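Researcher: Sequence of DUF4231 domain-containing protein follows. Predict its structure.
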Amino acid sequence: MEATKKQQLKQNIAIIIVITILTAIGLYFLRNHASKEGRELMNPMDEASRIYADKGIKNCVNITEMQADRLITLNSQLQKYKEQHEITFLKLYTYHFTSSTLFLIFSILSAMALFVITQEGWKNTSYFVKTVFLSFTALASFFGLSLSTFEQKISIDQNADTYIKYDNLQKELSNFCATSMTIKGDSITFDKFHSKIMNEATNMHGFYLEFDPESIDTSKIFDLEKKE
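Model: Prediction complete. Tokens:
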């Protein structure tokens, strides 16, 4: 009997190790796929940014060379802010895609294992199926909680939205250089325009990483009092 239990324990450990290794391999390939997909999504925007930097602020009308240099400097600052949100967006997109995919896969596998258990009954189900079911359930819970706790979708939307807003500010710089007016066609002095762009950039600047600690209630984890 003791030898049988030891053998079952070894089998369970082996199953868990195999599942862990397969999960790690899946993580690697899914993250690479999501990273490549995200980069392809952002490539056109990156190309537009290079156009702003190379050709967007040249031969400006009705402003001095010093003012044009200030626009170039301001454009470079906006570009750096954009890059910050682009990097954060791509990382979060990768994590969200990977977590969502694995959550879906392990949820389906857990449901399939549960179906087998309901047919056989817990006592009559093999240790292999029990171990697989518990492992898949634990992994599904982990990836599901990571989605809700870190609120990845909200952070993705915030960083993507801020990236677009910085890009629009760069368009305003390019338009002002070409016309000495705002995009809406309003006349404005250089100093007021420069202050307007700086003010909008300052209001937008920040790190957008959301976290919801309330999604995991740990207040009663160590509550050992008996309930009547």
